[in-house]
Amino acid sequence: MNIHEKYIKRCIQLAKNGLGTTYPNPMVGSVIVYDGQIIGEGWHKKSGEPHAEVNAVRSVKDKSLLKKATIYVSLEPCSHFGKTPPCCDLIIANEIPNIVVGTVDPNEKVAGKGILKLIEAGRNVTVGVLEDECNELNKRFFTFHQKKRPYIILKWAESLDGFLAPEKVKDQERKPIWITNQYSRQLVHKWRTEEQAILVGTQTVVDDNPKLNARDWSGNNPVRVILDQNNRISENSFIFDETIKTIVFSKTVKPSKENIQFEVIDFEKNSIPQILDVLYQDQIQSIIIEGGKQTLQSFIDENVWDEARIFIGNSIFEKGTKAPVISKKNIIKTNIQTDELIELRNYD
After folding, report:
1. Distance between CA 2 and CA 21 in Å, rounded?
2. Tens-place pLDDT, residues 193-213
3. In the annotation, is 41 catalytic?
4. pLDDT above 80 (res 306)
5. Among the four 52, 78, 81, 262, which has the fewest Cβ within 10 Å?
6. Largest Cα–Cα distance of the chain, in whole Å?
7. CA dihedral 324, 327, 330, 335 (to 10 degrees)
């Protein structure tokens, strides 16, 4: 590992502190080094608040050292006015001579303009250090800007014999049937705080009446996205409690309510591109698809997904709703006590 990689790796570590809180901005970390010593660090914490470079500069006690220092940043410094001033201007104003950048920002508002501005100001700029790792850090942000859709994570739990749910019993109570243990369920709630939205189909809400929140982990609740083509979901379902922003897709117009947004799409056509376009327009950069079978399988069949996270519990149902069928490539397996977690990546 060379010296630049050492400090960009630290930038990545710092940036991860912002997972789930920086949307719609990317996660960014910055380190300032003088004479082989870190003299300042910072990361972007929340949209509208100072960027990583600003926090790093502010943390330097002796500002006179900045004129002889190197600033490392995991993502290209911004060059435009948004909710905060351009970070390039800050670097130039503080006369920092050397800038090392992990990767170029794909946002068309930046996209190389920050690097060009620094070069034109006479600064020494190095670009592309640990580039793959920096791209992975902001896989949601990059997917959103490059593919014009959210980063899509499929998630489900299945029994040892491959069922999402057991066979239904007449007059069965509307509540979830747990396949996984409490630690796996807590992990799922942690994931919910890290992504911007969560999507389920009609039958999941009709059968389980889920809350789709992050009650078992501290953090933001995701936007609830519901497919309800024929408005079958009861008004007294948790998803209509107006406590969390909820987007409902149906084929007929309904008036929106407080925190509930109804969107009409043509279910006679492929619904997935229509759904993703609405979410893109709503600036939603990542979404967890939690089911049920038909909804999950439709994303798999269209090959529109980026990750799949599959829990295997120790229950045996023998009959019921079969789990989705997916090609198990690029697998990572983890044991969570009695459960097994299989993680897949859908590489192009």
Report:
1. 31
2. 999 999 999 988 998 899 999
3. no
4. yes
5. 81
6. 75
7. 40
